[in-house]
């Protein structure tokens, strides 16, 4: 394993990973990928660094306040891995740009912070056949799952329709433990590295949940839903036009 | 039937902070009612106004999603582990 030996294997050196969201999850994920020596990293984020981000978004420092997160991320990644090709997308992920953004990449990391965007990542990735790692964090609880399109369960196999954002707790209401973001984000990077090396079942069909307060990791087995509206036998979602993405910026609204 | 219910962080304010509670009932529906009896307010977070499991919540019995079993009528037996897993969207 390259990350363990310090030697980067060719599959990883040639791999390109897109990190959507340069926040609590995307920061540690991108950092780990850069340190491991992937072939290229893309970072998508529309926001600027705010003070309330710094407690968990480890690519951003106080000197970066007000700077686009993608710029701040690029500077840090360039310092730890000067040879790394980092591509910045200072934009929101939306139905209209998903295909263009995802196309060059071998694996996607979902570091987004809103339910709509998480489903947009899921739908875009499954429709394009791009593997990705979903994760969500709030308070002391995190969970993650690798989705290999049409081979393993996707987010809609678990939750066929996206919940109303008002129904689920947001980081704005509840906060996020800083170390939780690191724990889950670093594992997302590992999921990408495992996939690039051919371990496609790593974190697929099993949702890993972490309770950072009780220090308990658990697997919940999940499986493809043959009635899934996206990857089931008779899909009803066949393009992204029905989707809209509001990047609600729930985590910074109270800064 | 006494089952072990794994309570996710957002619902622990109803269980006095407990991450696992015991509930009794022969089906998931009865287990949810028993949870409500001992931890008032929790049912509303699990089920909607029509009594169906909310779309952002999944319930697993020993790792199996009740949507692929018999939903709220899924039977449970002594010692089963019931996990409530909500969607989490923060990042």
Q: Low-confidence segments of chain B, ≥5 residues, pLDDT <50?
A: none
Assembly type of the shown chains? heterodimer
Distance between the termini of chain A: 40 Å
Structural class by secondary-structure content of chain B: alpha+beta
**SS element count, helices of chain B:** 2
What's the architecture of chain B in CATH terms? Answer: Roll
Number of helices of chain A: 9
Number of domains of chain A: 1
Please outline what is shown here:
The complex is a heterodimer of chains A (255) and B (91). Chain A is an alpha/beta fold. Chain A has helices spanning 2-5, 10-13, 26-36, 69-80, 98-102, 115-128, 155-158, 171-174, 178-196, and strands spanning 16-20, 40-44, 85-89, 107-110, 132-138, 141-147, 206-211, 216-221.
Written overview of the protein:
The complex is a heterodimer of chains A (255) and B (91). Chain A is of the alpha/beta class. Chain A is built from 9 helices and 8 strands. Chain A has an 8-stranded mixed beta sheet with strand order 3-2-1-4-5-6-7-8, with helices on both faces. In chain A, strand 5 (132-138) and strand 6 form a beta hairpin. The radius of gyration of chain A is 17 Å and the shape is globular. In chain A, 51% of the residues are buried. In chain B, strand 3 (57-61) and strand 4 form a beta hairpin. With 91 residues, chain B is α+β, with helices and mostly antiparallel strands. Chain B starts with a strand and ends in a 5-residue tail after the last strand. Chain B has a single domain (2-86), classed as Beta-grasp domain (Ubiquitin-like (UB roll), Roll), CATH 3.10.20. Chain B has helices at residues 28-38, 42-46; strands spanning 2-6, 20-24, 57-61, 64-65, 81-86. Classes of the chains: A alpha/beta (255), B alpha+beta (91). Chains A and B meet through strand 5, strand 6, strand 7 and strand 8 of A and strand 4 and strand 5 of B.
